[in-house]
Amino acid sequence: MPRIVEIPDSFLLTIAVYGNMGDGDLPDIMRIWAQKECRRLGLQEEMIKLQKYRLRELEIKIRNVMGDDAIDKLGNDIKKVAKAINKVIRE
Questions:
Q1: Is residue 41 in a domain?
Q2: Per residue of the chain (91 residues), what is the pLDDT tens digit?
Q3: Which residue of 14, 15, 29, 32 is surrounded by the most CB atoms within 10 Å?
Q4: Predicted structure pTM score
Q5: What span, in angstroms and rounded, lies between the C-alpha atoms of 84 and 91?
Q6: Interaxial angle between packed helices 44-66 and 68-90, expressed in degrees from 0 to 180 and rounded to the nearest 10
């Protein structure tokens, strides 16, 4: 007989945003499942807000390790690549 397991919204959002429970495919599957569940349950806005917060945390950590100059150069390089890709797509 199937069982229903209730997961608190905060746990579901954590899995959807962080999904860092080890290496490999299982964490990715869990994160993707949790993101779909968040959308289905109307938690998408909160999930997006937490994802943006998580990205800011990562950016701060990377800046602390690599330094502002390296990150700014990398950001400029990414913008150039994105611009080139968009140009190719439009052609």
A1: yes
A2: 778 888 899 999 988 888 766 666 667 888 899 999 999 999 999 999 999 999 899 889 988 999 989 888 988 999 999 999 988 888 7
A3: 15
A4: 0.67
A5: 11
A6: 130
